[in-house]
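Revision sheet: structure tokens.
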Amino acid sequence: MRTKPMFALALALAAGGVQAGWSIRASDVEGSNLEAMARQNARAVQVIPDDDWAATNFASERDLQWFRGARYGMFICFGPSTFANKDLSWGVVQAKLPDNPGKKPYTFETWTAWPKQMRLERFSREDLATIFRSSGMRYAVIVAKHHDGFHLWDTKLSDFKVTNTPYGKDFLREVIEACRMAGVKVGIYYSQRDWYHPDYCPVDPETADYSPNSPGRVKAKPGKAIRPGPRHKAYIDYQFKAVEELCSNYGKIDIFWFDAVWNGGMFTPEMWDAERLTRRVRELQPGILINNRASVPGDFDTPEQRIGMFQNRRPWETCMTLARGWSYTGEKSVPKPPAEVFRKLQACAMGDGNLLLSWGPRWDGSWPEKQAAVLAKVGDWLKAYGDSIYGTRGGPWRPGAWGGATFKGNKAWLHVIRLPKDGTPVALPKLPGVRLVAQRALSGEGLILKESPQGYEIAFGNASLDAPLILELTFDRPLTQADVLRN
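Predicted:
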């Protein structure tokens, strides 16, 4: 049967306006999976001139190895908005240009008072370490400051911080300690947006109005030229000091996760002095990985709320919510079922990317039990089937609507995430110069690969998607990137 390739499904989703974040060198666009994406939804893809790409800073391939192999991470989100069971910042705080500065239901005086009631009396780093161990996640990214400007660490730069609350502790440090207790890598999220800081003003409202269909989401006022606010340079100076604190006071940091995605020029490198900023991060944390949301390419792409397309030219990571919001938004926020989460993890791995799954504690510091149970169930499946996810690369067959493959050494795994309605077998091309010597179904019944002189066929038999559906294949030699087929 013919199936729609996964990158076409990703393209259709991206065209719907959900935020995406891909970066690519201009000379690499033609013939890449991102070529069609860049034409259809230019805001989703930052095409960077070759000279700028060559002049920027990157992690080494050696430093990237652990990230490629980890595949699964936890995004920990918390802040003042959790008091009202609202998602981080967006449902509470009035934004500043170039974001939509529309009215919010809470006044500045209201939401900035919520930290006075932040006690986190049920937070326990030991509990979080236990959740990490049961989840199978290999790294974490922790929100240190979201767009609301509230510092979840003991900064010397502001009084608007967690150590000035009744909780009194450095929340970021507590979570980092939980990561280290559980043996997972540590990432820090830092938003360049700051709707609290008085100097933050990448677009001066005296010169422009919000305009969602205009380049950069802003339109110049009559007779005006768009420019930053008069004190935005002071904000950049503050931002350097804040990032330096985060990179200096918490030991080894493995990822720095910025969050002002380029989005068609809405945010630009000049707004953050991004090249100098990212180089400073690497000076303070040698070997660190940096995402692409400072409008310079960084080390990995960041599609959001969708599975990325097959891409093995450079790493990528889908960031996605476990339930309705990035952070805790109340008991009515139903988490994704375990089987759905695991299928999304499989889809990321067979596209050669990672899944960063987001959730957060309640206002009292406890973790939502239903959401934790989902993570634990996925962790149980990873104990059984983790060899087909961890340390693998996407391929050798490209993903299709039925699923796709991962490989490592002389083994490949076929991951079925969607069954054909009529049970028609799926055809796969032969791998030249490779002989299949064994196969076994890791779970399910009836799943088998049939071989012919022309290729292979996946037969589904009585297969069900109630649990992960994976077929392990063993070949007569190790597979390499040269074996990845353009099917």
